């Protein structure tokens, strides 16, 4: 059998050349101070070739041929030369590895500053100069090369490598999905788990704001894209209601202590207020409720003095509670903004890419949330800097906030003032035809919401009855290099659109392959996103 081809380390076939074997053996002789061994080197190379012909492998691997060279040298008594040849192989292997694209990338990550390295500055949310930022890039670049070599369809890999398309977040190809629109009202009911213990349902606006940040951070660890709170105003308003009830009770207790010389009536007040809510459905509210005040007075007078005194205490409690709740809400929104610009996820290397949607809640509590999140944004961070996060989207709707006299028109004005100074909030128009087609009055889940990358998910071909934002998210993205197609077309529209059709078909195939990979995942791969029911219908799945 005549040996004509060998298989190189990267899988490519190359012509077999016995002279290269003889040359490598001769170099090993020279390295061990045995010059003038060219004839012996040729003889040993012939012996290697004889073994290969006996083995009958048509396309032997380079590594196998080198193993045979070592064996032949040792069998012929050249122990020292065999050792030199082994060292020579290792040096050659090391040199090859150092020159691979991955090793060059690792060298860049290790020795370059972020200001000088495109790779280290690829993600604006990651500080590539830190230990965790660099470690994340080591893993990211290694994963990309692995997927390029072993997972991607070669046609897709080539198109990405050559810049015809860009497969976004290629390092997460086999791992997860992109973004999610989080329903915090649903998530907070009864509390939730981050995987390291269960957090109780919050009972204060400060806790609501803190848990909102934790939810964003936890979900960011399960996905590679941005995290959006789809109903920030509606969700946070529950925290304002709870805060107001508590602060009202505390102030009422203080007033009665002063007016009626009571020792500490708060415990008794707690029981009375709980009974009114349980039996009559009445509780103190931010806007004030005469029906509640009357029922409360009737319950308080027998125990805490005459009606005039109790009414005076109620007015004091209401006024103080409104002011204190407003201040607490501002502090909570300020803390939320500071947290979202400083807390980290993804191995401590990335600030979560966060967005919040608001504008439509006309309740006093929801309005208080929106006013204060915009005032805190307008004030800026500790040094007066413009907050990068959360990206804020103000929903604009006629009848709600667009025209003078509408319930939230003052908030729309504040939003424009804040945006002029701080770039946020951005604005989405629910009355635009492509948004209005989904909108159903009284159903906040049909109000358009956006994620960090300014995308949205609301249409539902599978179940048109649930064309909603809540709990929906993006799977994956691939971008087509349109300028390149245009340049290649040289002004010919038909050529351009034919090329675009072909490239779109390629992207469809690539995205379907990625989707098939994602479909093989389990709930336990996404302990927060799926395990806590954040993704629509994931609460119907078990851990496996």
Give an overview in words:
Helix content is 53%, strand content 7%. With 544 residues, it is an alpha/beta fold. Strands 4-7-8-9-10 form a five-stranded parallel beta sheet. The longest helix has 34 residues, at 307-340. The relative contact order is 0.09.
What features would you highlight for this structure?
544 residues, alpha/beta, Anaerobic Ribonucleotide-triphosphate Reductase Large Chain, 4 domains, five-stranded parallel sheet, two-stranded antiparallel ribbon, 18 helices, 53% helix
Can you summarize the main beta sheet? 5 strands, parallel
Q: What is the terminal separation in angstroms?
A: 54 Å
CATH topology of the largest domain: Anaerobic Ribonucleotide-triphosphate Reductase Large Chain
Question: How many helices does DSSP assign?
Answer: 18
State the helicity in percent bands: 40-55%
Q: Which class best fits the helix and strand makeup?
A: alpha/beta
Sum this structure up briefly:
The protein has four domains: 5-98, no CATH class; 101-150, no CATH class; 180-237 and 329-540, Anaerobic Ribonucleotide-triphosphate Reductase Large Chain; 239-310, no CATH class.
